[in-house]
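Bug #2210: C-alpha cell dump truncated for Geranylgeranyl pyrophosphate synthase?
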Amino acid sequence: MLADILEPIEAELRYVSDLIEGHLTIKAGYLGDFAHLEFSYTDKTVRPALVILSSRIYGLARQKTALLASVFQFIHMASKVHQGISENDSNLARVRKDPRNASQFPVLVGDYLYGKFFTLLCDAGMTGLLQPLAEIICQIHEGSILKKKLDGKSQNSHEFYEAVRKETAELFAGCCTLGARMAGAPDKDQDLLKQFGRSLGMVYGLLEQGIPVKYAAAYLEKALSSLALLPDTPERKLMEKMTDLLSGRLPRRMVI
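Reproduced locally. Full output below:
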C-alpha cells in the first residue's frame, strides 16, 4: 500500500493533512458541505509526497517543505472542485437536496482554496514561487478546457494526451521541481525531476482516465530513467517504489 511506502515521511504528511483540514472550516461552516472534497488516500497524499521527497533528497528542513506541499494540495483541490462543477444545475430538487451538486457554492469554495494557497505562500515568505505556480494553474485550466472541448472523442488523439499533460502532469512536475528548487538542488537535477514528475503525472493521469497501462509504458520508462540519474538517496528509492505502485508494477490495494 502507498501508506507503507510513505511511512518514513508520515509525520510531514500528517502535518500537511492537519494544516489543510484546519483551513476547511470557516464561519459559514465546513467547506465539504458546500463542495465535493472527497479524495482517496492516494489523491490526498501523492502530490505532497512528491514535494517532500524531492526536497529531502537535498536536505531541506521539514516545515518549509510541508508548507509547500500544502500549497500544491490546495491547488489540486481547488482545480478538482472547479472541474467537477456541473454546467447545468437546472435540476432544482437535486441542488436543494445537496448544494455541492450546484454551481455557485463549488465555484466559491474553489476560489477560496486558491486564495489559501496565496496566503500560505505569503505567510511563509515564498512569494518567489508565485509565478511558476500561476503558470501551472493556467496549464491545469487550459487542459480542462481542452478536455471539455474534446467531449469524449478519441482517447488516442494528440489533443487528449495534451489535455492530460496540462490538467494532471504539469502539477506533478511542479511538485518535484519546486520542491527541489527550494532545497537548492542543481539546475540539472531540477530538470531531471521535472521530467520525472511530468512523466509520472502522465502515467497517473492516463490511468485515472481509464486508459490501459500499456499506453502509459513509455512515460513510466522515462520517469524511472530520470530518477536513476538523481543522487542515490533513501528518498529516491521511495520515489521509485511510489512510481512502481502507481503504475501497477507492484501489487496495490488502493484507488487512483
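Output looks complete on our side. The first strand starts at residue 25 and ends at 26. Marking as cannot-reproduce; reopen if the truncation happens again.
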